[in-house]
Amino acid sequence: MTVHLFGAVSSPSIANFVLKQIAEKVECTYGYQVANTIRRILYVDDCLKSTCDENTATQPIKDLTSACAMGGFHLTKYTCNKSKVLSILPKEECSKHVQACNLDYDDLSIERALSIQWCAETDTFRFSKPITRRGILSTISSIYDPLGFIAPLILPAKKLLQELCRDASLGWDDELSVEHQIQWMKWLYELPSLKHMSMKRCMKPAVFGNIISKQIHIFSDASTTGYGAVAYLRLCNDNNKIRCTFLMGKSRLAPIKMLTIPRLELTSATVFVSLGRILLQELSNRTTLHQE
């Protein structure tokens, strides 16, 4: 009989419960250290254990593997910062990074967990955004801009990512071409300039006087690269002084499947209408909507 643990919401809890039962069962055979490793260091399907030196790491690996196998758990994807330890393990049971290395000549590779890199050879942690599809997506996603203040800056980076996604032969962690790396580095070079940008939260200046007119003006446009809309608040006081303030912007990439400009213009018009509805709903005072 085969029991499938994963797929349900309760899968992690079931896995942990089964592991604790295994620990109780194997303690008499493999000893307290192995049983305690299963109880306290194994979490769902990951295990991270340290030993004093490479000589004391070999036997615990063998014992832990055998103990878990008794409960139907197959430990695999091993990695370590010592080549001697990895050399005793079947290569097919090691992680893909280790399998790609020649342990006699190559330095141990870098393992990644989200944005943290573990450099096995030096046993150090680093934080880096690799120049890959995954690294570009991570960087773009880390920029939170719900009001669209920097939409014109983000759109070229999204366009580059879209171009990379068109290439079916390019994996998420593959190195980019020189041309794409130059485009990406140029965009990254401009990114720090954001620290010099500031936007007033209050839309009405403190000494503007009495406002006699409030209007929302929304502009939309489209191109083969992208489309979008931007909204401004136009205020007029009793001295006929006018002030225009940025309210909100929305930008979208043009689809990978080529569309005609008129169709893209219609798509931008839907963003226009959606933006107008949001602003009219959120702004409590009555406004007049002018279409351009």
Query: How many beta-strand segments?
Result: 9
Q: Based on the structure given, which CATH architecture of the largest domain is correct?
A: Roll
Measured between the Cα atoms of the first and last residue, the distance is 68 Å
Name of the CATH class of the largest domain: Alpha Beta
Quote the average pLDDT.
Answer: 81
Beta-strand fraction estimate: 15-25%
Strand order of the largest sheet: 8-7-6-9
Write down the domain tally: 3
Reported by name, the CATH topology of the largest domain is Ubiquitin-like (UB roll)
Task: Characterize the structure shown.
The chain has 292 residues and is α+β, with helices and mostly antiparallel strands. It folds into three domains: 1-75, no CATH class; 133-196, no CATH class; 211-291, Ubiquitin-like (UB roll), CATH 3.10.20.370. It has helices spanning 11-30, 32-40, 58-70, 83-87, 96-99, 133-141, 151-166, 178-190, 261-282; strands at 42-43, 46-47, 110-113, 116-119, 124-127, 211-222, 226-237, 242-253, 288-291. The strands form three sheets. It has a four-stranded mixed sheet. A three-stranded antiparallel sheet has the order 3-4-5, with no helix packed on it. Strand 3 and strand 4 form a beta hairpin. Helix 1 (11-30) packs antiparallel against helix 2 (32-40). The radius of gyration is 29 Å and the shape is elongated. The termini are far apart. Residues 1-5 and 285-292 have low confidence and may be disordered.
Question: Can you give me a brief rundown of this structure?
Answer:
This protein has helices at 11-30, 32-40, 58-70, 83-87, 96-99, 133-141, 151-166, 178-190, 261-282; strands at 42-43, 46-47, 110-113, 116-119, 124-127, 211-222, 226-237, 242-253, 288-291. The protein is of the alpha+beta class and 292 residues long. A hairpin with a 4-residue loop joins strand 7 and strand 8 (242-253).
